[in-house]
Design goal:
Elements (H helix, E strand, L loop, with lengths): L1 H18 L6 H11 L2 H14 L4 E6 L7 E9 L4 E10 L5 E5 L4 E4 H7 L2
Antiparallel strand pairs: 1-2, 2-3, 3-4, 4-5
Length: 119
């Protein structure tokens, strides 16, 4: 009986979380595609498919505000039961300029710098 109640709770929670998802716009699809198609992310995605049997997850986790015109895109490894976020990028919603977020330094850096020094 406990298993039944646990299964029902998981089902209800799962439906609640799924209900919270919002529709993705064409612009958001383009932004995610820009990041997913960076050569570094293509290579990384292939290695994660080989290692984990699952592709990377690319999602917009911050939208532009009045003070900040950028979308933040997170890149995560899908381990089945959880996601491990490994990279964050910012994409300007008007110019589509891309920058990388350095978590350790807590700052955005130009994509060109990240490519030469950090990835």
């Amino acid at each position: 009986m406990k298993a039944f109640y646990l299964a029902m709770l998981l089902l209800i929670f799962g439906l609640h979380v799924k209900g919270q998802e919002k529709a993705i716009t064409q612009q958001e699809k383009k932004i995610i595609s820009l990041i997913a198609n960076l050569p570094e992310m293509v290579t990384y995605n292939k290695s994660m498919i080989k290692k984990l049997g699952r592709p990377l997850v690319f999602e917009i986790d911050e939208e532009p505000t009045r003070d900040n015109p950028d979308y933040r895109v997170s890149v995560a490894q899908d381990h089945g039961d959880r996601l491990y976020h490994s990279h964050y990028f910012f994409v300007n919603g008007k110019t589509y300029a891309i920058s990388y977020y350095d978590v350790i330094a807590d700052k955005r850096i130009p994509l060109s710098y990240w490519r030469k020094h950090d990835h």
